[in-house]
Amino acid sequence: MKISARNQITGKVAEIKNGPVNSEIVVATQGGDKIVSVITHGAVESLGLKVGSEALCIFKAQSVLLAKADIALAVSARNKIKGTVTEIKDGAVNCEVVLSTPAGLTVTAIVTEDAKKELSLAKGDSVYAIIKASSILVGAN
Questions:
Q1: Do 52 and 43 form a contact (C-beta atoms < 8 A)?
Q2: pLDDT tens profile 82-140
Q3: Verdict on whether the full-model pTM lies above 0.70
Q4: Could you tell me which residue ranges the Mop domain spans (predicted)?
Q5: How far apart (Å, rounded) are the C-alpha atoms in residues 116 and 68?
Q6: 99 close to 84: Cβ distance less than 8 angstroms
Q7: Which pLDDT tens digit goes with each residue over 6-38?
Q8: Which DSSP string corresponds to 56-89?
Q9: Confidence of residue 69 (pLDDT cuts 50, 70, 90)
Q10: Residue 13's closest CA among 131, 89, 43, 123?
């Protein structure tokens, strides 16, 4: 199956915190980066997720916020991924920003051209990709 979401990250379930309705899933990538998702407890059961299970984390580029300063650490979103801008594709209204972490994780964000200018984003900049855990879909085989 192919899907349109640009961010498709594989890893292994490192932790599951079950609640009566929702569960928090922590997926560790091969390089050691972690992605946190909040899904229903029913989804955890139907996917057969357990610690050590292979998992696929999926999120749209439009769900990614970018921040340049360490202020990113003071937000409520569970996913704050620090990386370096490796590519910027400009558009008429929006631009695509690709960042990579030292461990090799790649995250793509779509931000407005105005936001890019306000942040003075450029290739080589250190940035945080911020993604709410509720925006991360989890898949399993």
A1: no
A2: 999 999 999 999 999 999 999 999 999 999 999 999 999 999 999 999 999 999 999 99
A3: yes
A4: 2-68, 74-140
A5: 11
A6: yes
A7: 999 999 999 999 988 899 999 999 999 999 999
A8: EEEE-GGG-EEESSGGGGGSS-SEEEEEEEEEEE
A9: confident
A10: 43
Q: Name the DSSP class of 1.
A: -
How far is Cα of residue 54 from the mean position of the Cα atoms in its chain? 17
Burial 87-117 (b: 16+ CB within 10 A, else e): ebeeeeebbebbbebeeebebbbbbeeebbe
Token pair recorded at residue 44: 């955890």
Average pLDDT estimate for 64-74: 82
Q: Can you tell me the distance from the alpha carbon of 50 to that of 15, in angstroms, rounded to the nearest whole number?
A: 8
Q: Domains in the chain, please, with CATH?
A: 7-59+134-140 (2.40.50.100), 61-131 (2.40.50.100)
Report how far residue 17's alpha carbon sits from residue 60's, in angstroms, rounded to the nearest whole number: 24
Q: Which residue type, as a one-letter code, is found at position 13?
A: V
